[in-house]
């Protein structure tokens, strides 16, 4: 039986692997927007990351589970991992709306992702269905957002809300490179995730 959340956050990502940048953005959004729950949804097949081999969704989903376990407001969902084909946010938001009718949905992204939003599938429909929270991220100035969104309906632009979070210059790309090169990843991600990566020999 689905819960009846009124204000629901979705944290989407490839999470290859999940790290403190993701967790700090999600927790910041939860607090700032009084979200009752934030659901982390690892992408099954991200359409924009076709250049390199993405880690098996099963591993990414387990790491996400391990990362959110200590936060009672956080949860995970495997809906994107289970859906065949590319993972489009529009399909995910539609599915979440069906699962939690009446919930106001807040989709949490980092600045880099939101700056690319015009390339997302059915962006106008998406902005009618949910709010976007754009967390600051080092290297991706949100000041460019207004200019970037010049072509879209001002009512839709209002649906994108910038949010200041403590700057963490952490990326999954950097973590994968560190593992490959034998450099430490400790303190960049939760310890159970670090242990999982090392035990399974991921990113070698
Ligand atoms: P990769 O380097 O593989 O692209 P990533 O660190 O960017 O990985 P993603 O899974 O691509 O992580 O990102 C998921 C979401 O989290 C995106 O909306 C992204 O902007 C946001 N995000 C990731 N890292 C940070 C960070 N350090 N600060 C704020 N937001 C972040
Ligand atoms: Mg990324």
UniProtKB/TrEMBL annotation:
Its EC number is 2.7.7.18. It catalyses: nicotinate beta-D-ribonucleotide + ATP + H(+) = deamido-NAD(+) + diphosphate. Pathway: Cofactor biosynthesis; NAD(+) biosynthesis; deamido-NAD(+) from nicotinate D-ribonucleotide: step 1/1. Keywords: ATP-binding, NAD, Nucleotide-binding, Nucleotidyltransferase, Pyridine nucleotide biosynthesis, Transferase. CDD domains: NMNAT. Residues 10-178 form the Cytidyltransferase-like domain. GO terms for biological process: NAD+ biosynthetic process. It is an enzyme of class 2 (transferase). GO terms for molecular function: ATP binding; nicotinate-nucleotide adenylyltransferase activity. HAMAP family: NaMN_adenylyltr. Catalyzes the reversible adenylation of nicotinate mononucleotide (NaMN) to nicotinic acid adenine dinucleotide (NaAD). NCBIfam families: cyt_tran_rel, nicotinate (nicotinamide) nucleotide adenylyltransferase, PRK00071.1-3. Belongs to the NadD family. This is Probable nicotinate-nucleotide adenylyltransferase. It comes from Desulfofundulus australicus DSM 11792. The gene is nadD.
């Amino acid at each position: 039986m689905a819960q009846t959340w009124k204000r629901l956050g979705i944290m989407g990502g490839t999470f290859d692997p999940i790290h403190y940048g993701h967790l700090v953005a999600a927790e910041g959004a939860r607090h700032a927007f009084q979200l009752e729950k934030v659901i982390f949804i690892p992408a099954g097949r991200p359409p924009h990351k076709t250049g390199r081999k993405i880690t098996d969704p099963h591993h990414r989903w387990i790491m996400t589970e391990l990362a959110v376990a200590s936060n009672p407001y956080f949860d995970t969902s495997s809906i994107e991992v289970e859906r065949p084909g590319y993972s489009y946010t529009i399909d995910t938001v539609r599915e979440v709306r069906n699962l939690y009718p009446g919930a106001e949905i807040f989709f949490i992204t980092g600045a880099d992702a939101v700056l690319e939003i015009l390339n997302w599938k059915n962006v106008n429909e998406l902005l009618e269905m949910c709010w976007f929270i754009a967390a600051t991220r080092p290297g991706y100035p949100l000041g460019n957002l207004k200019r970037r969104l010049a072509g879209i309906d001002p009512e839709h632009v209002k649906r994108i809300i910038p949010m200041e979070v403590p700057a963490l210059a952490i990326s999954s790309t950097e973590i994968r490179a560190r593992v490959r090169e034998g450099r430490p990843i400790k303190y960049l991600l939760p310890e159970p995730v670090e242990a999982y990566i090392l035990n399974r020999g991921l990113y070698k």
